[in-house]
């Protein structure tokens, strides 16, 4: 297939292009200078000119708690415009296959864990990333509406848990937790610091999946689309296990070889106390995450040292 991949320069996009199954397809990978996803006319013109068979929408303004709290307007507006422009333009251009990547932050903050797809819009969102969540909910609903009103359309949304891996961002100001922790602990080891600070009490639980496992499920979904299999419109995709923030810090410390201690700043925000998604629907479709936490962190740390610091 000729596939338009938005966000091809980001972590998820690069992991998709690096996947062995990517060689079977022709990928269109326009950068922001070539295609401004915030411009609806530009997006529509791109579809008219290139006529892709399928779309993988992986683009977005992303970041951790600090970035979301610092710029909620940008996270809401930019992600909403990108999602609506890409998905609606694909539909208007006659594209029948689209994979939309959403986020587990769409779930209500008080929903019981593990989180099921049916929990979305059943309660108040987590305030620290509400803007991003609202944008992702809008894109998800748009895909569902199109699939319901166009019998030939297969517009599927995948909801991954938190991600990390090769090509991640390691800048503490805009990175997610695991890459930020990798950098923090690596620098503490190099500097000889005997203590590393953790926000909150460290008992909040999170589920992080290695990004190459998300690429696996994307190609698995593409194969199901090609075989005309009946696909759920909405699927959680995750590791199937969560860990405390303290456990993530300790695992990274073990991989890095840091032997100092941890302190806790109880004045800092921590977000939801738990966020574990139920991936049973995706598992029933024949997919399961392969990479363990330790293996994933070892690969990510190797990438950080060899490609980010010394690349």
Describe this structure in words.
- With 311 residues, this protein is of the alpha/beta class.
- It has one domain: Rossmann fold, CATH 3.40.50.720.
- It has ten helices and 13 strands.
- Strands 2-1-3-4-5-10 form a six-stranded parallel beta sheet, with helices on both faces.
- Strand 4, helix 5 and strand 5 form a beta-alpha-beta unit.
- The model has no long low-confidence stretch (mean pLDDT 94).
CATH architecture: 3-Layer(aba) Sandwich
Strand order of the largest sheet: 2-1-3-4-5-10
Globally, the shape reads: globular
What average pLDDT do the residues reach?
94
The helicity comes to: 40-55%
Task: Report the strand count.
Answer: 13
Counting H and I runs of at least 4 residues, what is the number of helices?
10
In short:
By secondary structure, this protein is α/β, with parallel strands linked by helices. It has ten helices and 13 strands.
Give me the secondary-structure topology:
Elements lengths: L1 E5 L4 H8 L7 E3 L11 H11 L3 E4 L7 H6 L1 H21 L4 E5 L28 H20 L4 E7 L1 E3 L12 H15 L3 E5 L5 E2 L1 E3 H16 L7 E4 L5 E2 H12 L4 E5 L8 E2 L4 H5 L8 H17 L2
Parallel strand pairs: 1-2, 1-3, 3-4, 4-5, 5-10, 6-9, 7-12, 8-13
Antiparallel strand pairs: 8-11
Salient structural properties:
311 residues, alpha/beta, Rossmann fold, six-stranded parallel sheet, three-stranded mixed sheet, 13 strands, 42% helix
């Amino acid at each position: 297939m000729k596939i338009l991949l938005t966000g091809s320069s980001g972590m998820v996009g690069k992991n998709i292009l690096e996947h062995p199954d990517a060689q079977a397809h022709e990928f269109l990978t326009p950068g922001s200078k070539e295609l401004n996803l915030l411009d609806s006319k530009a997006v529509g013109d791109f579809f008219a000119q290139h006529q892709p068979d399928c779309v993988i929408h992986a683009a977005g303004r992303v970041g951790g708690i600090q970035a979301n709290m610092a710029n909620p307007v940008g996270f809401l507006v930019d992600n909403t415009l990108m999602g609506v422009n890409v998905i609606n333009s694909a539909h208007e251009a006659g594209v029948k296959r689209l994979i939309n990547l959403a986020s587990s932050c769409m779930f209500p903050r008080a929903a019981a864990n593990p989180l099921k797809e049916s929990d979305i819009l059943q309660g108040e969102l987590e305030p620290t990333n509400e803007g991003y969540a609202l944008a992702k909910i809008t894109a998800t609903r748009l895909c569902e509406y199109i699939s319901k009103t166009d019998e030939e359309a297969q517009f599927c949304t995948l909801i991954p848990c938190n991600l990390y891996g090769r090509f991640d961002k390691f800048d503490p100001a805009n990175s997610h937790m695991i890459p930020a922790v990798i950098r923090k602990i690596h620098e503490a080891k190099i500097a000889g610091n005997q203590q590393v600070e953790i926000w909150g009490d460290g008992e909040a639980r999170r589920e992080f999946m290695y990004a190459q496992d998300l690429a696996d499920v994307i190609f698995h979904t593409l194969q199901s689309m090609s075989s005309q299999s009946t696909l759920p419109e909405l699927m959680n995709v995750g590791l199937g296990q969560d860990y405390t923030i303290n456990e993530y810090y300790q695992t990274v410390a073990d991989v890095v070889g840091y032997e100092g201690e941890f302190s806790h700043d109880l004045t800092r925000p921590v977000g939801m106390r738990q966020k574990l998604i139920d991936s049973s629907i995706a598992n029933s479709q024949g997919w399961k995450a392969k990479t363990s936490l330790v293996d994933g962190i070892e690969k990510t740390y190797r990438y950080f040292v060899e490609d980010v610091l010394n690349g």
